[in-house]
Amino acid sequence: MRVSIFGVGYVGAVSGACLSELGHEVIGVDTDAQKVAAINAGVSPIVEAGVEERIAAARQAGRLSATGDAEEAVLGSDVSMISVGTPSAANGSTSYTALDGVVADIGRTLRKKNTPHAVILRSTVLPGTTEARIAPALSEASGRAIGETLSLSMNPEFLREGNAVRDFYKPPFTVVGSLSEAGYETGEALYEKLEAPFVRTECALAESIKYLSNVYHAVKITFANEFGALLKAKGLDARQALELFCRDDQLNISSAYLRPGFAFGGSCLPKELRATAGLAKALDLDLPMIGNVLASNAAHIERAFEIIAAGGRRKVALFGLAFKPGTDDLRESPFVALAERLIGRGFELTIYDRCLELGRLVGTNRDFIEREIPHLDRLLAVDPAQALEGAEVVVVGHVDEAAKQAILSQWGAHGGAVTLVDLQGIEAFRELPGADYQGICW
Ligand SMILES: NC(=O)c1ccc[n+]([C@@H]2O[C@H](COP(=O)([O-])OP(=O)(O)OC[C@H]3O[C@@H](n4cnc5c(N)ncnc54)[C@H](O)[C@@H]3O)[C@@H](O)[C@H]2O)c1
């Protein structure tokens, strides 16, 4: 394929070197004359292992050149990749100045071209940018609608500097969001020789996955470093502790706990967080991330409350009160916190939890619930039907299969103009007739 790459900095230079090695014909475009001259001299414009020799080889083979002229590049290619910088603006927002300029350049030139053209965005942009900002600007500048003769897709880049060539050839996956079929097909053809799975998705999800990944990486590093500082202060070598921690690939290094949903709770996580933050304080250590996890969790409970309260309906049936299904452990349950919030704000609440028999609660569990919701017995329904009776808002904290089926089968009788707030993520509830369905993270 003939590919123009706008911006031959770290991402563009690596892509140019590797795409030309894969056999594509590449023209790099940059406003920086030094970078253009470097590529044309067969030299890498950036320091990155493996790039220089690939650029030199591609120059020799006649598959790579560079220019400062956007028009020449667009007219000489069928695909334009955009990898210009999207730096932070002074107020922390993202600056799209360079990106907007390139989109306008490409669009204007397309008026002089009759053949189909594909535009692939590789720069990191916030979710929604491709569709809401780039697509209209590109259509307006080119006079073409996004479709058959002009495609626009978003293909986030995951390379790490220092490892970039390896990352280019062995990405975990290739993600492409596109506004038309042609955009997906261009991506598939471009990366045909890579073994990585090719994932078709929508543009905003392609944009999001980059932020999810980078923020997660930052959170992982911060987690290890905050614990590192804490363990060092206790005379330990945190590297050993983290090495052992990482050997658990069931809960620690796995997809466990990475499903968005409701807040955490129970008798362990909040307690251990408080103890860790307390220890840091005693040691005069500032651990801002660990120290704010409980506040973040409380904010999530508040978000659920706001969703429930938003519709102005006052009669609420809450399914699930224990901190997770299959137990009657109420200690530090986020559902108890939610119930308290609702009661405190005057909502009429009914609760159903199959595992809960007040008479059987003992010890700290009983003490906890008597302190938090003193007259819980008056709120508990004996079965799902009783909980649903007259409910205007059904909140699904957690339901087992029987309660789920009860809600589904009785919905017809009780479901007219009812809000269903789903904290668990049960697809079948989305389809309930007449339900105003609200998910907590979806
Ligand atoms: N560096 C990374 O490791 C990395 C990894 C993944 C994604 N990204 C994202 O990719 C994008 C590019 O990052 P980078 O590190 O390669 O940036 P960079 O600053 O190294 O390169 C950007 C290049 O774009 C050029 N440029 C600016 N305006 C231009 C214009 N109008 N026409 C042509 N060229 C122009 C600049 O001169 C520069 O050479 C950013 O959105 C970044 O967030 C970077």
Walk me through the topology.
Blueprint lengths: L1 E5 L3 H12 L3 E5 L3 H8 L10 H10 L3 E4 L2 H6 L3 E4 L14 H14 L6 E5 L7 H14 L7 E5 L9 H6 L4 E5 L2 H10 L7 E4 L1 H31 L4 H9 L22 H14 L5 H4 L1 H18 L4 E5 L14 H11 L3 E5 L10 H10 L3 H4 L4 H5 L4 E4 L4 H14 L3 E5 L4 H4 L4 E5 L3
Helix pairs in contact: 1-3, 5-6, 9-10, 13-14
Bound molecules: nicotinamide-adenine-dinucleotide.
The site of nicotinamide-adenine-dinucleotide has 24 residues, from helix 1 and helix 5.
What is this entry, summarized?
This protein has 19 helices and 13 strands. With 442 residues, it is an alpha/beta fold.
- Shape, per Cα inertia axes: elongated
List bound small molecules: nicotinamide-adenine-dinucleotide
What's the number of domains? 2
Q: Helical percent range?
A: 40-55%
Oligomer: single chain
State the secondary-structure class. Answer: alpha/beta
The poorly predicted ranges are none
Q: How big is the Rg? A: 28 Å
Spatial arrangement of strands, main beta sheet: 3-2-1-4-5-6-7-8
Major β-sheet annotation: 8 strands, mixed
| Number of distinct helices | 19
* CATH level 1 name of the largest domain: Alpha Beta
CATH architecture verdict of the largest domain: 3-Layer(aba) Sandwich
Strand composition percent? 5-15%
The mean pLDDT is 96
CATH names the topology of the largest domain as Rossmann fold
- Beta strands, count: 13
Q: What is the assigned CATH homologous superfamily of the largest domain? A: NAD(P)-binding Rossmann-like Domain
Describe this structure in words.
The protein has 442 residues and is α/β, with parallel strands linked by helices. It folds into two domains: 2-202, NAD(P)-binding Rossmann-like Domain (Rossmann fold, 3-Layer(aba) Sandwich), CATH 3.40.50; 296-439, NAD(P)-binding Rossmann-like Domain (Rossmann fold), CATH 3.40.50.720. Helix content is 46%, strand content 14%. It contains 19 helices and 13 strands. The protein has an eight-stranded mixed sheet, with helices on both faces. A five-stranded parallel sheet has the order 10-9-11-12-13. Helix 1 crosses helix 3. The radius of gyration is 28 Å and the shape is elongated. The mean pLDDT is 96. Nicotinamide-adenine-dinucleotide (NAD) binds at residues 6-12, 29-32, 35, 83-86, 98, 101-102, 123-124, 157, 159, 161.
